[in-house]
Amino acid sequence: MNACGHRGWGGRAVGGALAASCLLLCAPAAATERFGLFAGNNRGGEDEAGLRWAEQDAGRMRDLFVGLGGVRAADAILLLGGGARDLRAALASLAVRVAAQKTKGERVELFLYFSGHGDDAGLHLNGARLAFVAIDDLVSQIGADTVITIVDACRGAGHGAKRNKGATPGPEFDVRLTRNPGPTGHVLITSAGPDEVAQESDALGGSFFTHHLLSGLRGAADADQDAQVSLAEAYRYSYHHTLFGSHRTAAAVQHPEMELTLGGEGEVILTSLGGAATSLLLPGAVYGDVLVVDDRSGRVLAEVDKDQGSVARLALPPGRLRVQVRQHGRIYAAELSSDWGGEVELDASTLIEQPRLAALGKGAALDPAPWAMTGAFALRSAAALGRALSTGVAMSLARPLHGARWFGRAVLQAAQATATNDSLAYRHFEGRVGLGAGYGADLGLLQLEAAATLSALGVWEQRRRREAERLAQTGLVRPLAGGYTVGPELGVEAGLGLPLVADWGVVVVAGPSAALLKVDGDVALVTGVSGRVGALYHF
Length: 539
Prior knowledge:
Blueprint: E1 5-7, E2 13-15, E3 32-40, H1 54-67, E4 76-80, H2 84-102, E5 107-118, E6 122-125, E7 128-131, H3 132-140, E8 146-154, E9 162-164, E10 185-190, E11 199-201, E12 206-207, H4 208-220, E13 228-230, H5 231-249, E14 257-262, E15 269-272, E16 278-282, E17 288-294, E18 300-306, E19 312-316, E20 320-327, E21 330-337, E22 342-345, E23 352-353, H6 356-359, E24 372-381, E25 389-400, E26 406-420, E27 424-443, E28 446-465, H7 467-472, E29 481-499, E30 504-519, E31 522-538
Parallel strand pairs: 3-4, 3-5, 5-8, 8-10, 16-22
Antiparallel strand pairs: 1-2, 5-6, 6-7, 9-11, 10-14, 11-12, 13-15, 16-19, 17-18, 17-20, 20-21, 21-23, 24-25, 24-31, 25-26, 26-27, 27-28, 28-29, 29-30, 30-31
Helix pairs in contact: 1-4, 4-5
C-alpha cells in the first residue's frame, strides 16, 4: 500500500489521493450562489496506468449536484481530460464569475472536485504535474466564502479490477450538526485513512467511496427522512458502507475521514431531495441489499443496504429502472417505469425471484457467486481427419474480468472420432487445454456472449488397413500405422445461455477454429467447426 500527504487546496494537511471524496456544499442562505468545478482525467503521468472511471465519476458528480445540490448548470464547469493549463483556465473563469456575484453582496460557495492521478505534491495531468501550492494560490484569489475541496487522485495500478487511488491522512474529529446556514471556511473529505489506499472498481463503474457517496446523496443516507442529506448523514453513510464494501471485495480496506473548519452554527445540507425529477420509494416490506440500475444504460444508480421495516426514498433521474434485491443469498428483481417523473413505489409483491444467471447482467462482481462452470457435450469436425465428426465432452470455468460484461475462462476438452473408407479405418483422439476471454450481453432473459480461446491442441490418430481383419485369419497381420501431433489452435464462438432454476442454466455454443498441425510430415493449417450443448452452474 502507498500513502501520501500534501498541502490541500484548503491550506491544511490533506492526503494526496482522495478517492471519490464527499461532495459537500453548505446549506444555501437566502442570497447564496453555488459554483462548481468538476474535473476528471483518466491519464496521469507517462509511467502511470490509465484509470477507467475517473472522468465518469466527475460527470456523475456534476450531474447530481446540478439536479439535487443547488448548483445551476451554467455554474457547473465540467472538465474532462484537461491538462494543467485547462485547469488553470477553469479556475480563472470561476474567479470572474465569483467576483461578479460578490459585487451584488451575495455569499458564494465554491465546490472543487478532481478525479485522476496525483501524488503528495500535486496532480498528474496528461504527463505534466500541477502542484497543489499553485492550486492553493489560484483558489485563494477567487474569494469564495466557503470552499469545499475534493481530490480523487490515484497512484499507480491496483490489484485485478481494483486500482489503487492513493490515501491521505487526516486528523480525527467529531462530526457536528450545528453550523451556520452561511458558514465560512473549508471542508475536506478523504476516502481513506493514514497508510491506506483508496480504490476504484470496474464492477461498480467508479471508486468504492464515490459509489456509496452517490447513493447516500440520492437519499440512502437520509436517516431522519426530512428529504435532505446533511454533511453528518452523508459522512456516516459513506464511512460505514465504504469500510464494509472494501473489506468484502477490495484488495485493501478503506477508512474514510473528514476534516472541516467552519464558523458559525447551523446544519450543513448537501442535497435536497424534494426537487428530484423522480423519487423511488422503498417501503418497509422491501429489505436487503437493494441495487437500482438504469435499464437502458445498465449503469448502477444507487445501492442501499436496507433494514426490514424502514422506509427509504431515493432521488433518481427519470427512465426505466431495474431493481435487484438480495436477501440471504437469494435474488429478486422488478422493473419500474419513471419516464414521466414523480414518485414511484416499489411493491414488494412484484419482486420475482431470479435464477442467479439471469441477474448477472447487472453487477456480476457484486454477486456472491461470480464463478461459472459449464459441462457440455461437444460435437466438432475432427481436427486432423477432416473426414468425420468427433464427439466428446468439454468443461470450462469462467469469472468476470471487468464488471458484468467481460469474462475470462479456462477450457478443457476431449473428443474422439472414427471413420472408414474402402481400404482404411481410422481412429482419432484429440484434447484441448486453453485460456480465453469474452464479452456478454443481455437479450431479455437470454444471455448472449462471444469469446475467443487460444488452446494447445493434441491429436493422436491411428490408421489400419481394412484387409488386416481378413488377413488375420490366415496369420498374416499387417502392421498398424499412426502418430500424434501437437500445435496451437485459435477458436472463436458465440453462445446463448438460458437460466432455468436457482443457479442452473443451459448453454448452446458454436464457432469456427483454426490450428497449425503437422499432418503427414508437413505443417498445415487445419480448420474446423465445433458446437456444444450443456449445463451451466454458478457458484
